[in-house]
Amino acid sequence: NVYVIPVFFYNLSGYDAHFVVEKIANDFKGGVDLLPLTKESYISFSKTVKETQTNGKWDRYVKLRFVDSYKFLAASIEILASYLNRDKLRITRSEYANLSAEDLDLFTRKGVFPYEYVDGADKLRDTEIPPRETFYSFLTDETASESDYKHATRVWRRFRVRDLGEYSDLYLKTDVLLLADIFENFRDACSASYGLDPAHYYTLPGYTWDAMLRYTGVRFELLTDIDMVLFVERGIRGGLSQCSLRYARANNRHVPTHDSSQLTTYLMYYDLDDPENFDATTVPTDSDVGYILEVDLEYPRDLHDTHADLPLCPTRDKTLGKRQEKLLATLYDKSRYVTHYQNLQQCLRLGMRLTRVRRVLRFAQSPWLRVYIELNTALRTRASNEFERNLYKLMNNAVFGKTMENVRDHVDVRLVTRWDGRYGAEALITKPNFHSRSVFSENLVAIELRRLEVKFNKPIYVGMSILEISKTRIYEFHYDYMVPLYRDRCRIAYTDTDSLIYSLEYEDAYERMKRDVHRFDTSDYAENNAHGMPRVNKKVPGLMKDENNGAIMTEFVGLRAKMYTYKILERDDTKRIKSVKRNVVAKRITFQDYVECLRNARELKTHQSCIRSTLHEVNTVSEQKLALSPHDDKRYVTSNGEETLPWGHYKIPL
């Protein structure tokens, strides 16, 4: 008889766990069980409360399970609370039942707190709210907005706060109440829709996976032949990201700098609509049987120019002089390439040559996931608030991740509070599969053991098939629609998994979209948009949508994968750098920095602040990061610095 009490923290794994895990392990009796990512990072941890045993026997006891709410709802409390209608804040309203509606509104939004200002207990005795500049955050390089500071001042005065310590208590209490309301509404919506309570789970992918299994009744055959497992694993490659054309500028009648004497060009950003919701098994086939094949393929030289922007059959390879493998789209011949049969059909139709079939894995296929996707789509349509609409979208997206779970990454970490005994540190360290240890304090150590066995209990062939067939949608759009339509006037500037940025030489790209509107989701265009674009095909999986919704993209600079920028008329520049925090990119990196990096082949470094934990000691650190680099090893950069070629292209000098 185990009574499990889940305790939810917001961002437990990333922050709060570092402060509480040592106290939880040592301050009262009972063991701690981990669901670890590493020795210092945990998805969840549980404390067995020894004092709850009956008559010295473990027949009834309580286990406190500490869980991260962010693993279910990956957004800030402020954003999540804004999705809820006021009548849904039942816990907050009950706690402040004596307040007027106007006063209660003060607690329906997340407050602000001067974290950096409070550097000692004496600051908590301040009897006046600190000035706005003390609400500056070293992490975000921002001060509280005037609106947020005004809200904090209203709370301080309305509730006659005596000092900053009392304000701190009120701030924390409001956070906890909002989180409780958010998660209880999440539980209510999930229980009503799927008949399962998410409080019994650790993450949203785990929950939606069980909900899908329960609703569809599907039963997967798990692979028992290790050769089959390894075979399918070789076909899992992830999404392709690359920069093909490093600079492009639009010249059309919508652009203020339009030069009528030059060719008319458009920059268009197309994104595949809900690729995770695209049910790969519903693609028409001739049979209820499908195949995963290991083949040798030849890439004919006469395809090199046509396929230079988006080569078929990407592979994981090490680039020149690098140890890390990357997903590369190359024009090399493919040897022992594992692929789904629909990808192979597409490759052969587009001109690649099949030289040998080495192995074939045959499987039965049916549209088993369709009913679950349609359920969530219908629930999303009927949802009465933004909170539920976002929830049902997440339920579809998250189910895909569970099909790709890599059980090899699971680790065995034990949190130990004593040296001797059967489960003490000494016994674990002397095991032959001992890996490493981290000493957090005199009475707390984490010990990692090498796993003696790996249980392959995930249907990875599902995830592999979805990933592979999703790629066919991008290739189909480019080679079966864009290339025949625009021919050599169509260039891909950037590719990222399910999206394409094009440079098009055409009189009016938007008029062309209107003619072929059945291929696009245009539902997010403004009602009276300047292009006269009809608003149709809302959220139809597998269709392309204009990411800018009719706004005019005027200029693009791409340095390499995950490092690009573009300008939009009458909007802020869009800037992306994978390894640098968004607030740093927004404030310190300019569009011109990208241009100069490209033109002058010069790297740019910047500083950013972040929270780091070392042995559960949390510190705010400032670090120097490489922000912009002109070097791209995924493709060959030509002498002009703007054009690139895929590796294996016949024009690359040997």
Automatic annotation (TrEMBL):
Give GO terms for biological process.
DNA replication
Name of protein: DNA-directed DNA polymerase
Q: Which organism is it from?
A: Temnothorax curvispinosus
- Keyword entries, A-Z: DNA replication, DNA-binding, DNA-directed DNA polymerase, Nucleotidyltransferase, Transferase
**For this UniProt entry, what's an example GO CC term?**
DNA polymerase complex
Q: Describe the family membership recorded for this protein in Swiss-Prot or TrEMBL.
A: Belongs to the DNA polymerase type-B family.
Decide whether keyword Protein transport is in the record: no
The Gene Ontology terms for molecular function here are: DNA binding; DNA-directed DNA polymerase activity; nucleotide binding
Q: What does it catalyze?
A: DNA(n) + a 2'-deoxyribonucleoside 5'-triphosphate = DNA(n+1) + diphosphate
Superkingdom classification of source: Eukaryota
Gene3D superfamilies membership = Palm domain of DNA polymerase (3.90.1600.10)
Q: Where is the DNA-directed DNA polymerase family B mitochondria/virus domain?
A: 7-239
Q: Give the organism's phylogenetic lineage.
A: Eukaryota, Metazoa, Ecdysozoa, Arthropoda, Hexapoda
According to the UniProt entry, what is the EC number of this protein? 2.7.7.7
Which EC main class describes this enzyme?
Answer: transferase
Please tell me whether the keyword Nucleotidyltransferase is annotated for this protein. Answer: yes
